[in-house]
Amino acid sequence: PLQPPQPPTNYLSTAEGFTEAFNQHGCNPPRHVTLCTTSLLENNKCEWLAEAGAVYGVSPPLQCAKRDSVEECMTAVKNKECDCVVADSNWLVKAERNYSLTPILHEANPIIDRMTIISAYVRRDAGINKMADLRGKRAAFPLLDGIAWHSVLRYLTNKSCNDIAFNFFSEVCALGLEKLDLKGALSKKYTENCGMRQDDDVNGEIQALRALVQGKTDVVFINKTTYNLYVNRYIQKDWSKNLIEIVPICPEENPKYCFISWSNIGHVFTSNNLTSLRRHEVINVLTKLDQYFGDYPHKSMFSMYGPYNHKFDVLFHNNTKLLETNHMFKKHPYNNIPLNFEQSLNASECYISKFTTGFGVKMAPSVLLLILSLVSSIIMNK
């Protein structure tokens, strides 16, 4: 005779050894994937994400560790105290060069305007119409050693390795150059003329744009997002009240998109010498969390990329659509967009050779090259 229906777990429990195997899942000692955070707010969001993942059975579980800065987090990942850290594209070169870290996942978005897009912007009345017209002009960058800095260096050295990058400009200004404690004429050439200083309330992107608007520099290399904030009057400052017409300068190689580089919004960095098994484990945990709590049509109890405590871009960027591995660069639409920054890190020997050793504590040789170029320029102009 037919047996009455019963729950699957009751049926499976009759199988020899099933109960013991079911109750002994997991590793001993227990394993975790430890994500490093840089603020109390980030750490709180990470712990919420870890709890939500535990409810959904994500294994090994996510664990959170707090440090006081991205530098400290990268050091912790390098020293195997943590497994991974999330940082934006300004850290791509520094992570590899200074900490031996590599991005294994990217905060991706297929909409171009929501990526990190670095373009050259000038005032329309400056009479600058093409990249070659920038030679001998004053240039400002949001950050020394950041993505805009390296994008321009890559672009210029790819044009001609003999004309090494910053021979190109008469003056160079970037947030972070003031830390080199330059004196006299060099100080004016680098830090005083454009007025960029460390300021917790005003980031380097806004400061570089301000220098252009105020006529203290001729060209700025900034993210398109910053440009859009200005033209749409979202920057509420005295210097931005009267809009100055600013236009991008398109590279001859990229007239369609008109930028010198693009990259993903952010990246998950791990140690270069992580075992393939552990690397797969980190990728698996974070992509599982992305599937459950990412930017998908279904509703979940927690949003991985949404605002947290009424703050934007906490831990992950709000414009993130999903986490992608390096395989993304072979897929549409990314494989059809030129001048990707992540892939160019190893594409040019001329470009990479400038960053393989340190200058001072953590300065790349490109900085020394830049300084020597301007010293010779100053001497020749006297």
Key features of this structure:
single chain, 382 residues, alpha/beta, D-Maltodextrin-Binding Protein, domain 2, 2 domains, 13 helices, 33% helix, elongated, disordered C terminus, Transferrin-like domain-containing protein, Transferrin-like_dom
Q: What can you see in these coordinates?
A:
The chain has 2 domains: 28-111 and 264-338, Periplasmic binding protein-like II (D-Maltodextrin-Binding Protein, domain 2); 116-262 and 348-381, D-Maltodextrin-Binding Protein, domain 2 (3-Layer(aba) Sandwich). The termini are far apart. Strand 1, helix 3 and strand 2 (62-66) form a beta-alpha-beta unit. The protein has 13 helices and 12 strands. The longest helix has 18 residues, at 276-293. It has helices at 8-12, 18-23, 40-55, 70-78, 92-99, 147-159, 184-192, 204-213, 224-231, 276-293, 341-344, 349-352, 365-381, and strands at 33-37, 62-66, 84-88, 101-108, 116-123, 138-141, 171-174, 219-223, 246-249, 261-263, 266-271, 322-324. Helix content is 33%, strand content 16%. The radius of gyration is 24 Å and the shape is elongated. A 6-stranded mixed β-sheet has the order 2-1-3-11-4-12, with helices on both faces. Strands 5, 6, 7, 8, 9 and 10 form a 6-stranded mixed β-sheet that branches. The chain is α/β, with parallel strands linked by helices and 382 residues long. Residues 347-382 have low confidence and may be disordered.
